[in-house]
Each structure stands twice: as C-alpha cells, then as structure tokens.
Amino acid sequence: MKRIYLLGALLTAVLAISCTPDTKELDVLKEPAPTVPQVSNPPVDLSKTLVIFSPNETIEKIFRDPTSKTISATTFTFTPKFAKRALQNGEVINLKIETEKVGYERSLPEGSFTIEKAELSSGTVSETFKVTLKPYAFKDLDITKEYTLRFRVKVTSTTPTDLPVATSDQDSAYRIKISFTEEEYPQGDNIELINADTIDDDKKLDSNKYTFDSNYKSDRLGALKDENYNTNWWINTEEEVYLKTTFTEETTVRGVIIVQNQRWAENKTIGGVDIYATPDNIKEYLQGTYTRDEHRKKLCIKFKVPIKVRTLTFKNFKKYNNQYIDVYEVEFF
Question: Is the keyword Lyase assigned to this protein (predicted)?
C-alpha cells in the first residue's frame, strides 16, 4: 500500500509542476489575440473648395539657335481647377501666382521670363495664367541640363469673404520642366512615299501611345485605330479640317501609314495633305506636302530624317474626285 501511495503522490507532483502557470505553453495561451488593423480611407473634406492644377506639370523642349543663341517667342499658359466643393452662383475666388524655388530643382536664371498674366478670377472662364520666356535670355545657359519653372497659386480674395476655400501643398503648385536643344529640326522637304508592305507590324508604334483630335466628326476618330477596315472617319474637303495626333511622350517617328478606301480606287481618297510636326507643343514645322501620284490602298509616307515629336498634325486636305475623303486607319512607325 505504501508503494501505491508514494507512486500516486509522485505522479501528482509531476503533473503539478508541468502545469505551472510559469510555463511557456500557458504563457502563449494567455496572450491576447492580436488586433487586426482596420484600414479605411480618410474622409474627403467636401466643405471647402480646393484650388489645384491637374495636371500640375508640363515638359517642354525648346530649340535654341546655335548661331544667335536665341529662342523663338515661347509662352506657357495654365489654368487652375476647383475641386471638392463646387462653387455656387455668385461665389468668386480671385487668385495669383508667385514663383517658387525648391532646393532639388534647377531654376532658370533670374530675369529670363516674365509673368504676363499673374492674376485671374474664377468668375472669368477664359482667363489663364501666362508666362513668357525672353528670347535673348539664354545665350550663356548650359543646355545640357534640365530646368524648372515652379509657380504657387494663392488666394487673394473671395466673394463672399467667408467663402470656404483652400489650396494644396502638392497640387497647388505648377511646374514647367524645360530642356533646350540646338539640333536643327527637319522641315520643308522631309517626306517621301514608300511601299507600305515594307513596314512590318513589329515596327509600328503602340496605338495606346497616341490619341487623335479633330475639328470635324470627332465622334468617329476611334475608327482610326480599331484595326477594322470596315469602319472609318471621313473629311469634308470643303471645310478646313485638321487631324491632330498627340503622343503621350516625346516619340521618334519615322513615318505614317494611312489606310484608304480598299474597294473603289477612284472614290473618296486623299488628293493632297500637309503634314506638320512639333517637338515642344509650341512651334510647328511643316514636314512636307503629299500630292497624289497614284491610288494607294495604304498611303505610306516616310520622313527622310526621323523626327522627335509631341504632336503630328494633318492639315489642308485636298480631294481627288469627291469632296469627301474616307480614312480607315492611321498608324505610325
């Protein structure tokens, strides 16, 4: 009996020690479950009208004459937007811009530009801020570097005086990033016709990298890059119609393919058109004028010297034998 009693006592002691509150196993069980973080977006303050620029920057490349070291007359315009709380009838915000410098940006020299329009009112829809570069101010400038003009918009007054309005640290500043080049830009006689079949598909530019704009039948422009030869945009040559292509960034373009009528060779085709390019969204350069020589289902116009562009514009469309022209696709390579 003594042996049984001692064995039972020993077993009880072992169990008591193994289950002591000081063991790591029980410490883990005692720890509270971690709190799952709750992610939520901060509330949008709709009680104030926010003055912002959207987009809040532009990138420009400007040509400096290698001989005179001057630039062409160059003016930038930009307009703020009013976000969050919409302005009500009779409410007016008066604004002005001031130059701003930050340490990580290289500014243009003092006196190299003028702010021609520094103030505007929300009550005048057509008003824009206007900044002009001085043609003779960059003769000694190091054009291997990029420069930035930064302007901060400020509220000068409101109607009524207690109108709830605010500006943003980031979006209420507008930046113009400027670089210069002395490379002569091709113009005048820079186009030639080639066979479209010599251009492989892998040489063509991604159609997502450019958009079209026109003052005629703009609702049909989607047909120009839908890869469908049964849908088209058309032109009335008795009106002054343009077709403008804007690239998402500076792009090297070697030529353009215009897909014309595939069925009727003598109907609704291009008799002639002028092609303009701009590398800086400021000055246009005529690349040349196409004049019909024969019917081409795919009109392939190559630039003799490839050009870096921000926009390409087709103007002065001429008819062949019908006042209307059908265009099915416009591609670039």
Answer: no
Regarding whether 313 and 214 lie in a shared domain, the answer is: yes
Q: What is the pLDDT of residue 283?
A: 79
The Cα 240–Cα 242 span in angstroms is 7
Distance between CA atoms of residues 189 and 109, nearest Å:
37
Q: CA angle 65-66-67, nearest 5°?
A: 90
Burial of 163-179, coded b for 16+ CB within 10 Å and e otherwise, reads bebebeeebbbbbbbbe
Q: Which of 123, 147, 181 is the last residue of a domain?
A: 181
Query: Do 267 and 220 reside in the same domain of the chain?
Result: yes
Cα of 202 vs its chain's centroid, Å = 25
pLDDT, one tens digit per residue, over 76-135 is 999 999 999 999 999 999 999 999 999 999 999 989 999 999 999 998 878 999 999 999
Q: How many domains does the chain fold into?
A: 2
Q: Which of 272, 206, 278, 290 is nearest to 246 (CA)?
A: 278
Least confident of 37-41, 43-47, 228-232, 261-265: 37-41
Structural domain boundaries enclosing 108: 49-181
C-alpha to C-alpha distance for 206 and 228, rounded to whole angstroms: 16
How far is residue 333 from each of residues 7, 27, 111, 251, 307, measured CA to CA in Å? Answer: 93, 69, 42, 10, 11
- Report yes or no: 303 and 257 within 8 Å, Cβ to Cβ: no
102 and 203 together in one domain: no
CATH of the domain at 229: 2.60.120.260
Distance of CA 230 to the CA centre of its chain: 31
For the stretch 292-312, pLDDT in tens is: 988 889 999 999 999 999 999
Cis peptide before 66 (omega within 30 of 0): no
Domain identity same for 222 and 316: yes
CATH of the domain at 110: 2.60.40.1740
Same domain, 208 and 86: no
Phi then psi for residue 151, to 5 deg, are -130, 135
